[in-house]
Amino acid sequence: SDKPLRLPLQDVYKIGGIGTVPVGRVETGVLKPGMVVTFGPTGLTTEVKSVEMHHEALTEALPGDNVGFNVKNVAVKDLKRGFVASNSKDDPAKEAANFTSQVIIMNHPGQIGNGYAPVLDCHTSHIAVKFAELLTKIDRRSGKELEKEPKFLKNGDAGMIKMIPTKPMVVETFSEYPPLGRFAVRDMRQTVAVGVIKNVEKKEPSGAKVTKSAAKKK
Q1: Selection from 72, 34, 40 nearest residue 212 by Cα
Q2: Does 214 have pLDDT greater than 80?
Q3: pLDDT of residue 175
Q4: CB 84 within 8 A of CB 29
Q5: Pick from 4, 157, 148, 186: which is nearest to 85 by CA?
Q6: Which residues form the GTP-eEF1A C-terminal domain (predicted)?
Q7: How far is it, in rounded angstroms, from Cα 75 to Cα 13?
Q8: I need a labelling partner for 145 at 20 to 30 A (CA). Which of 45, 79, 109, 214 fits?
């Protein structure tokens, strides 16, 4: 894959005698032992000691591979599901301050307006996101703008919406990293809308931990 690494974590294990082992699927790019990875949204940066799939060591993991990888000097509590591993030297993953998405409302019984805060399922993260601003209502087939700043959207409507995560979260534009740029909107125990991310405003990490081995390799 010619895109930079993105590997959303599904889980993190502590394995006796080995240490901390995050697990997930490579969505884009490659993961190799010796690589220095940065985990978004926190910016924690460390070296990958080894990469395994089905209990076999790999020299590189490619898109679609479900792998576990051992990281140096990182506590299990410093990583969690929904974090995204990336190459520290190649467009590292960052926290999204806000993002703009094209959304289609499908199963919502009422109407959706500014301030709505459902849960977004995007890659492995599951985080409440505030619909800060309904920017436009659009024709879902042609993409043409029908209305600026609609008061609300209802079933069958599509619109561009500015969203703000309620907790630190990593998302990407659909055009750059498709698996991290599409989502389902969950409310009332069902999917009420689906969307793709058009644009992301990112935050620079502040005071992120960089392990000694990672600092050496910079």
Answers
A1: 72
A2: no
A3: 97
A4: no
A5: 4
A6: 98-198
A7: 10
A8: 109
pLDDT, position 97 = 97
- Two tokens, residue 157: 């409507």
Contacts of 69 (CB under 8 A, 6+ apart): 21, 22, 31, 48, 49, 50, 51, 52, 61, 85
- Find, among 20, 16, 58, 62, the residue nearest to 39 by Cα: 20
- CB atoms closer than 10 angstroms to residue 124: 20
Domains defined for the chain, CATH in brackets: 7-93 (2.40.30.10), 95-203 (2.40.30.10)
pLDDT confidence bin for 187, thresholds 50/70/90: very high
What tokens appear for 177 in the block? 């990293």
pLDDT at residue 102 above 70? yes
Residue 80 tokens read as 């969690």
3-class DSSP state of 34: coil
Show the tokens assigned to 72.
């140096």
Mean pLDDT of 15-36: 96
Q: Structure tokens of 93?
A: 């993953």
Which residues touch 180 (CB under 8 Å, ≥6 apart)? 6, 8, 27, 84, 122, 123, 170, 171, 172
Please give the Cα distance from 184 to 122 (Å, whole number): 7
